[in-house]
Amino acid sequence: MTDANKTPKSRKVIEIHPEGQRIHPKKAEGRFAKLRLAVLAATQLFFYGMPWLMWHGRQAVWFDIPGRHFYIFDMVLVPNDLLFLSGLLMVCAFGLFWWTTIAGRLWCGYACPQTVYTEIMLWIDHLVEGDRNQRLKLEKSPWNLHKIRVKLTKYLLIAAVAGWTGITFAGWFVPIREFVPALFAGTAGFGAVLTAAIYAGFTWLLGHIMREKVCLHMCPYARFQSAMFDHDTLIISYDEARGEPRGARKKTAQRGETGLGDCINCNMCVQVCPVGIDIREGLQYQCIGCAACIDACDEIMDKMAYPRGLIRYTTEAVLKHEYTDADIKKRLLRPKVALYGGFLGIAAIGLVVGLFTRQTMHIDIIKDRGVMVRENKLGMLENAYRLNINNASEQPQIVSAVVRGFEDIRLNGLPEQGLEIPGGELVSVPVQVSTQPEYADRGSHPIEFEFRYRPAGAPENQARTIREKASFIGE
Ligand code: SF4
Ligand code: SF4
TM spans, by residue (predicted)? Predict the structure, then answer.
């Protein structure tokens, strides 16, 4: 898709959103604006609401970094489970590739936090300062009491949104029900306050000050997403064949009677564009796929009693008349989509299976380097180890162990009936392994620990097994 990197040539863009000046998009209304609002509501309900949800007496989702535990409802993840984070990133990456190949920049237009916070800030602009024309007028007006009052109200609202966003973000990492009262009482921990302040600052900076500049100049996805596009990918496009030659006309003029195309050159599609481009100049990398121009143009088409869809979701192939809009669905099943979909499916299944079958006890065996080998009071060779036993569940669990490697090998330090490890705790236990001198001559010998663990009170047949390799140093 070579057009993706094209620079717009339209001079009208410069007139409507003068370069170097703040973009004041007009508010778009229509079905895609409603869809954007619904996605915004759903994502923000999740972000702001989730930290307040309780689960079995604690925060349902709590990323306790100092405690090295991630709580996600019944699941408790410990540092050994970091592999699942890589799995999750793979699912997100393949999901994004797959979705972008099918539907272009839907993520950018509807769900990306940058888009969402820009939308919230634009909503505040609109609420306090009015629509585009009123905002432009206010910008140009001299400072007076009215302007100071309006600007102050706006900045207070922006500060409230940014502040609460920062507090909420910190609340994913510290118990929010304790953090918020402590914050207002001035007793909250420095780390949590700093996290909230930094996130609030970035919300203000990226959502209010930088806005579309983040998408235009900072976002790497904006640059590489066109590599995932093919000529069957859904894009938001102006139907040049139908729209041109563009031009103003009387509202009473019949369609086609003026010799003009359907574009009445009202520039509404440019006025609503949050990144300040003219979609009629072709697909541009700056376009975030928000569909505001579709809503604006559909409204004009309705007023003119022309069919909707002069600007619409379509594909490059349709624009080149290779097939029609009605055939777009049939093009979903194509090799690139199937390939990304296959990778996504494998990664997602692997992640889900891995998460639900993961060990809830993690054991590290650390050889005591101080004493390589010694003779115990029974005349046996003995090596010392430290077992770091991490109970990655919220229930107490019983762990027991045997060790293998020589004909006569014994393990001391763990009770035969097993050791109870409290839920979510890391316990360090010194143990000794011994054998008769004739089985372990000089050098290192491979041995194996077999641990069995089960929830406290559960029968032995519910125990799960972990095997870990270690080495035994002989005489
Ligand atoms: S909104 Fe539609 S009719 Fe108006 S300028 Fe844009 S493409 Fe043309
Ligand atoms: S061109 Fe249309 S879809 Fe693209 S950013 Fe502008 S308004 Fe949104």
Answer: 35-55, 75-99, 155-176, 182-206, 337-357
